[in-house]
Amino acid sequence: MTDRETMAAAPAAPAAPAAPADEGPRTALVFPGQGAQKAGMGEAWRDTASWALVAEISEYTGVDVDELLLKADDETLRRTDLAQIAVFTTEVLAHREAEAAGLLAGVVACAGHSLGEYTALHAAGAVPLADTARLVAARGRAMRACAEESPGTMAAVVRLGPETVEALVARVQEDGGQVWIANVNAPGAIVLSGTAEAVDRLAELAVESEGKVIRLAVGGAFHSPLMAAAADELRAALAAVDFAPEHTPVVANVDAQSYASGGHWRDLELAQLTSPVRWEESVRTLAGELGCVRFVELGPGRQLTGMIRRIADGALTVPVESAAALAKLITPEP
């Protein structure tokens, strides 16, 4: 049975319980993915109590995370395996500090974009920190090695709707090109993965349709079949982890469905390597099926906040990208 068949056969996750009336609006925690990293990103959390977790994550991953967060330059942080550990660590710090500050009342679901899905699983109580850190490290290593063996790139498509993009992808594939839709992030925000040649060919066709393709500074064709070779190492890492049998619901990238049982996640994360991130649909699941009206983005930047505002009308978005931003949320200026 394939990963997709296994997921299709699995029972639906139970609906999230209603948040108690005294805990505020139904809240979703969301976590960004690779691409949010930047030099010096750890300074935003260096003076917090949670900074002690950096040493723990260094031990679990075999990487000097303190050095990575405080001293690594942008070029170093472009390396897929290091970028993933850096982003994951800052998300964990943001989550711990927001939790300690009492900002996370009313949480009924979590979700993360690509790499961020691993932090979402940890925040949801599905995986302990040590195991999550090891999974992130294994995933990053596997994806980096795969990208070196099967070089590729990613690119954003602007000014074109999904039907047009799908048609252009089909045209390039018919001519033997290797290109796929990798992310559907928000209305008008689609990302492609594929070989450089195929992406360049699609860019030419996009101009004819009055669209534009913008190359992204990434290390491989992520969320496409070109990542298939990364599955073996990740499969072994996932097999070593005991997922909690029950946890706060997490909406999965690959099918935008909510899962509250740890038994699903090995197949879901393997499928995520080569499947598109259905972020727009995931946000609609959070806002619709799960009734979330408040979205707390935990981690560097505000990438997801901008997307969510374009997807869910009236959603309250709360970005927590630094200790200073958190302090302002807790004690607003008069």
TrEMBL record:
This is Malonyl CoA-acyl carrier protein transacylase. Residues 30-329 form the Malonyl-CoA:ACP transacylase (MAT) domain. Keywords: Acyltransferase, Transferase. Gene3D superfamilies: Malonyl-CoA ACP transacylase, ACP-binding, Malonyl-Coenzyme A Acyl Carrier Protein, domain 2. The active site is at residues 114, 223. Pfam families: Acyl_transf_1. The keyword Acyltransferase applies. Its EC number is 2.3.1.39. GO terms for cellular component: cytosol. Belongs to the fabD family. It catalyses: holo-[ACP] + malonyl-CoA = malonyl-[ACP] + CoA. The keyword Lipid metabolism does not apply. GO terms for molecular function: [acyl-carrier-protein] S-malonyltransferase activity. One of its GO terms (biological process) is fatty acid biosynthetic process. InterPro entries: Ac_transferase_dom_sf, Acyl_transferase_dom, Acyl_Trfase/lysoPLipase, Mal-CoA-ACP_Trans/PKS_FabD, Malonyl_CoA-ACP_transAc, Malonyl_transacylase_ACP-bd. It is an enzyme of class 2 (transferase). Residues 8-21 have a biased composition (Low complexity). Residues 1-26 are annotated as: Disordered.
